[in-house]
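Following up on my earlier thread - several people asked me to post the actual chain instead of describing it. Fair enough. Here it is, all 118 residues.
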Amino acid sequence: MRMKSKQPRKQRKAKYNAPLHIRHKFMTALLSEDLQGKYGKRNFPVRKGDTVRVMRGDDKGKAGKVRSVDLKKEKITLEGVVVARSDLSEVPRPIHPSNVVITKLELKDELRELALKR
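Reply from S.P.:
Thanks for posting it. Predicted structure:
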C-alpha cells in the first residue's frame, strides 16, 4: 500500500526504510536534451555503464561512465571523478544522481529498452 501521509517525518522515514526495488526509482537523473527528444522522457534511472555529465558541485563539467550505483547510500560513482586522500591515494567521489545528466544510455538490457518505450 502506498503512503498517503503529508508529514515530513513520515516521508523521510518511508524513504529511509524503503526496500531496494523502490530505492531504484529514487536513483533517477535527467536525460540530455537530445535523449529527451528521442525517447519522450525527462528523466530515467541511472545504471552502471551509462555515460553522464556532472552538472553541480566541485566536479561540474566532468563526464564519465557510471562505475557503480549504491542504492543504500543513494549515490553513484563515475570513472575519472576521484578525490585524493591525505596519503595521496585516489578514491571515487560519490555523487547524487540529481546532480548529473545522462548523455548516453546503456541499452544492452531488453527490459530497460522496453521501459523507455512506455
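The CA atoms of residues 82 and 91 lie 5 Å apart. That should answer part of your original question.
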